[in-house]
Amino acid sequence: MLGELGEQGADTVSSDELAAATGVNPAKLRKDLSYIGSYGIRGVGYEVSALTHQLERVLGLNHRQAVALVGIGNLGHALAGYGGFDGRGFPVTALFDVDPDLVGIHINGILVQDVAAIPEVCRARDVTIGMITTPGPAAQGVCDLLVEAGVRCILNFAPVVLQVPGEVEVRKVDLAVELQILAFHVARRNLTGGDPESNGHVVNGAGGLKP
Amino acid sequence: MLGELGEQGADTVSSDELAAATGVNPAKLRKDLSYIGSYGIRGVGYEVSALTHQLERVLGLNHRQAVALVGIGNLGHALAGYGGFDGRGFPVTALFDVDPDLVGIHINGILVQDVAAIPEVCRARDVTIGMITTPGPAAQGVCDLLVEAGVRCILNFAPVVLQVPGEVEVRKVDLAVELQILAFHVARRNLTGGDPESNGHVVNGAGGLKP
DNA sequence: CCGTGTGAACCCCTTCACAGCT
DNA sequence: AGCTGTGAAGGGGTTCACACGG
Fold first, then answer.
1. Lowest mean pLDDT: which of A171-180, A194-203, B5-14, B104-113?
2. In whole angstroms, what separates CA A195 from the centre of its chain?
3. Residue A171 and residue B194: Cβ atoms within 8 Å?
4. Min Cα–Cα distance to chain A from B72, Å
């Protein structure tokens, strides 16, 4: 959001404005920002460019990180061609699959190589993040290869819980689960008969089950 | 995980087994399950099939829900062809885009139609969930059309915060943000010099910033 | 006067530990 | 003997409200 504001030529933002734009509580926003230091100006707000730079520094976004993508199925193919990653500092630098029909082709100018080459190629290209878009059963094996290659961060789209050493960070994205969560809210709403709870800005809200 | 266990022929599971398999605290698992009723057997565990059915009922997964997908770019194309949705009860039933070159083609046997047809088609096919995979600037307009069509649940992949009426539920998935979160953990680890915190089973952990 | 920064209250989720059932 | 179900303790994030500074 700060990036957007910067492009629009805004010099400063107040926590209230930023909170409204992102759907967050203003107090929480200020408190969170305060943890990285006092970069706001009382009575005015935050200087957009200064805050952006500070955040990038603290969040580790100030240098690009090469990404390897394993599993060139439907989803993998799409992610390999997705411009959003490179634009945000995460260039997709290596592609892997087991299928001999896929190995050798290029996507967006990047060669698809056999998974056996993961350790060597990832080290050579300084890959720090791996994305797994294989079928479930193949995911753990691929994960092990990535770890062997020194990759410490893994974004897992396969519907399995990966076992990794402690120094490796795994995040799991399960798109079908996202739909299930939405379905749950439908079910709950039909059950309770439309509670007048939320209004206008619900993003990933909780919604308990307790009576 | 229960579905998997059922296919493997397991009759019962203990909370400890289930917790280990899913990477969750056993007590939390029991407490959560207790909210939907007492379907466990003391000294034995949970009957897999019974628990599965109860969960499906409570979570609203016992009947299929039609999904509409708007924005047939890289990601949209992949999701339209992704088998994981239909397999979990969320058949992709309608596809939309603005691009005249895309309107008229079929993906997985489903016709791509113009976004202007959203209200009519979604009502006709009883679509309850909408997925938005358009570029950011187009997302709000598409969202409005879906809401007009009576869609109450939206899964948003576009990097914008959608404005919706209170009765509509929005979940946002930002894949670049997922990578940023991983990047943050790298940065933090490099900063603190490898704290001996996590071990073996970290999935979507928090990791604060406070001193 | 306005908006940040923050102590304190609050709330809720998480985890422990064990009573109770099979 | 084993495992569920849960009261109670604990911890941590969220929100309030206001002092402080521009």
1. A194-203
2. 32
3. no
4. 11
Q: Which fold has domain B66-174?
A: Rossmann fold (3.40.50)
* DSSP string for residues in B32-89: HHHTT---EETTTEEEHHHHHHHHHHHHT-SS--EEEEE--SHHHHHHHH-HHHHHTT
- A2-59 CATH pick, 1.10.10.10, 2.60.40.1250, 1.10.287.3510, 1.10.1200.10: 1.10.10.10
Whether the CB of A139 is below 8 Å from some CB of chain B: the reply is no
Options 3.40.50.720, 3.40.50.2000, 3.40.50.2300, 3.40.440.10; CATH for A66-175 is: 3.40.50.720
pLDDT digits (tens, 9 = 90+) for A83-139: 889 989 999 999 999 999 999 999 999 999 999 999 999 999 999 999 999 999 999
Protein-to-nucleotide distance from the CA of A72 to the C1' of D1, whole angstroms: 51
What are the tens digits of pLDDT across the range B127-185? 999 999 999 999 999 999 999 999 999 999 999 999 999 889 999 999 989 999 988 88
Residue of B22, B31, B90, B169 to mutate for A, most A C-beta atoms under 10 A: B169
Q: How far is residue B190's CA from residue A90's CA, in Å, rounded to a whole number?
A: 18
